[in-house]
Design brief:
Layout (H helix, E strand, L loop, with lengths): L1 E10 L8 H4 E12 L2 E7 H7 L5 E9 L3 E7 L13 H14 L4 H17 L2 E7 L4 H14 L2 E5 L15 H14 L13
Parallel strand pairs: 1-4, 5-6, 6-7
Antiparallel strand pairs: 1-2, 2-3
Helix pairs in contact: 4-5
Length: 199
């Protein structure tokens, strides 16, 4: 348990309906009480400290405290090539993306990049991500293992691609199905075979 103090920003409504000023509220001298990794209470600093007198206090009084950001579209396997330049999309894909993403068949490399990406995300206040992986199941295992170690919410899955890419980044419809099924079952989600996929 811990009390985090600072300027607490929170929302009471959807900022896209109405005005942001009506939706967003701030407690200038506020506090957030966290127990077992979850927010249990927040409010004015004095009130929270009074309610939870045995909780240690981390004082960020001059800083803004708010919910983590959500990255709704990211390709974590491209972390090592951020800001790479190409005249056209196909140049960029052929020169940087395809060679980089082909490396994710190596689980050690996938783990290194997954950990690096999530550390970068957290360092910038992003606590939830929706990410593409590559065709390699190793890339999926890597991001979920790294997310679990950080108690992060990640929506991700195997990319299924059978054309317009080099051999190292293509699979068949059957392989895509079989590997996706195995990944889901590993997480405890049994998958029924659709009638459109032939054995």
């Amino acid at each position: 348990m811990v009390i985090i103090t600072g300027h607490v920003l929170y929302f009471v409504a959807d900022p896209f309906n109405g005005t942001p000023q009506d939706a967003a509220k701030i407690i200038q001298d506020g506090a957030v009480y966290v127990h077992e990794g979850k927010i249990h209470d927040f409010g004015p600093r004095a009130e929270i400290i009074t309610r939870f007198p045995t909780a240690p206090v981390q004082d960020y009084r001059d800083h803004l405290i708010m919910a983590g950001f959500v990255d709704a579209h990211v390709h974590y396997p491209q972390t090592a090539m951020i800001a790479s330049w190409g005249k056209r999309l196909i140049d960029w894909l052929n020169t940087y993306t395809f060679p980089e993403e082909s490396k994710f068949i190596d689980s050690a490399y996938a783990n290194t990049i997954a950990n690096r990406y999530l550390d970068l995300a957290l360092a910038h206040g992003t606590t939830t991500v929706a990410s593409f992986c590559t065709i390699h199941p190793e890339s999926v295992d890597a991001i979920f293992t790294a997310a679990s170690a950080r108690n992060m919410c990640v929506v991700a899955g195997k990319t299924c691609m059978d054309r317009n890419a080099p051999d190292t980044l293509r699979d068949t419809a059957q392989a895509a199905y079989d590997q996706s099924k195995a990944l889901l079952e590993k997480l405890g989600y049994p998958l029924q075979k659709p009638s459109s996929v032939n054995a």
